[in-house]
Specification:
By secondary structure, the chain is an alpha+beta fold. The protein has three domains: 56 residues, Arc Repressor Mutant, subunit A, CATH 1.10.10; 203 residues, BirA Bifunctional Protein, domain 2; 43 residues, Roll (SH3 type barrels). 31% of the residues lie in helices and 26% in strands. The chain has nine helices and 14 strands. The strands form three sheets. The protein has a seven-stranded mixed β-sheet with strand order 3-4-5-9-8-7-6, sandwiched between helices. It has a five-stranded antiparallel β-sheet with strand order 13-12-11-10-14. The chain has a two-stranded antiparallel ribbon with strand order 1-2.
Length: 320
């Protein structure tokens, strides 16, 4: 491990408490002049440091940092490689372009800011710089084993579970891709399938309102953020790590065609079953009662005329 990573680990683990300069020097194996260069390097990575007679402390919540996310994650696939950017057009686009690179499967792309962030069905994803989680996960799927609907269900569930692991906040799910806190949207998922020279790849885009959310007048559904419910600023690193662990586990279940546990866990967090809904799907409006949410068959509805509908997540949205 290099000296800068050793220092950021120690600072992060202090949870805002000061690290003495003597401790830092010993841990990094560096004299004071070398330490100055290491502080500058951490600042370039986006971390804010405060110096006092007691030493140096990391200002929390801190910047997205690949090393802090990867360490001890235990990733077998999702999260083996993490890259963080200050600003990109879209994390989904960056992840998709990486698909041609060797060993890109499981790559996680994060950004502090997106110039052209997008949600489902062409909607914009709004987020101020440095406040929230803007993340994409790349999966190389040469066998075509990962369906769009199943991934949407799995990703939404992983986000809900990861948030709960990190904050203890009880999240609910609204088909196809909304994660809710007290009825307000706190996160969303965008699954995109791409064709590349080496076969098919899937990009799972995840946006989580951690420390900020858009005002109601700027979005279609009322939004909220984690800090509003926790009562203080939330460390994004722990939210990301929680989501990646959960997502990795559910992806393994999908590839092994073990869908019953996914189905059951998703339904436990969904209040739509037996509810009357209005859904727009591929240019049609379907009104009826929800019978089930299936990982492969989508939203299953019985309409007012007694007809059954299987509505795919890729082209459907609940409007009422």
């Amino acid at each position: 491990m290099d000296s800068a990573n050793r220092l950021i680990e120690m600072l992060y683990d202090r949870r805002g408490e000061a690290l003495s300069l003597d401790e830092a020097s010993t841990a990094a194996g560096a004299n004071r002049r070398r330490l100055e260069k290491l502080w500058a390097l951490l600042a370039q990575r986006g971390h804010r440091l405060e110096f006092s007679p007691a030493g140096v402390r990391l200002v929390l919540p801190t910047a997205m940092d690949a090393h802090l996310i990867e360490r001890n994650l235990g990733a077998r696939r999702v999260g083996r490689q993490v890259i963080c950017f200050a600003e990109v057009d879209s994390t989904n686009d960056v992840a998709a372009k990486s698909a041609e690179q060797t060993g890109a499967d499981g790559l996680v792309v994060l950004a502090e800011c997106q110039r052209c962030g997008r949600g489902r069905l062409g909607r914009r994803w709004l987020s101020p710089p440095g406040a929230n989680v803007l993340m994409s996960v790349l999966l190389i799927d040469r066998r075509g084993a990962l369906s769009h609907d199943a991934l949407t269900i799995a990703a939404g569930l992983a986000v809900a579970e990861g948030i709960e692991d990190a904050t203890a906040l009880p999240c609910r799910l609204k088909w196809p891709n909304d994660v809710l806190l007290e009825g307000r949207k706190v996160a969303g998922v965008l699954v995109e399938l791409k064709r590349r020279r080496r076969g098919c790849c899937v990009v799972i885009g995840i946006g989580i309102n951690v420390n900020a959310h858009p005002p109601d007048e700027e979005v279609e559904s009322p939004a909220t953020c984690l800090s509003r419910h926790v009562g203080e600023q939330v460390e994004r690193t722990e939210v990301v790590r929680g989501v990646l662990r959960r997502l990795g586990g559910w992806i393994e279940e999908l590839e092994a065609a073990r869908l019953q546990a996914l189905h059951s866990a998703w339904r436990q967090r969904c209040e739509m079953v037996n509810q009357r809904v209005v859904v727009e799907s591929a240019g049609k409006r379907v009104v009826g009662r929800v019978l089930d949410v299936d990982p492969l068959e989508g939203l299953i509805i019985c309409d007012d005329h007694g007809h059954g509908w299987h509505l795919p997540a890729a082209t459907s949205t609940v409007v009422g």
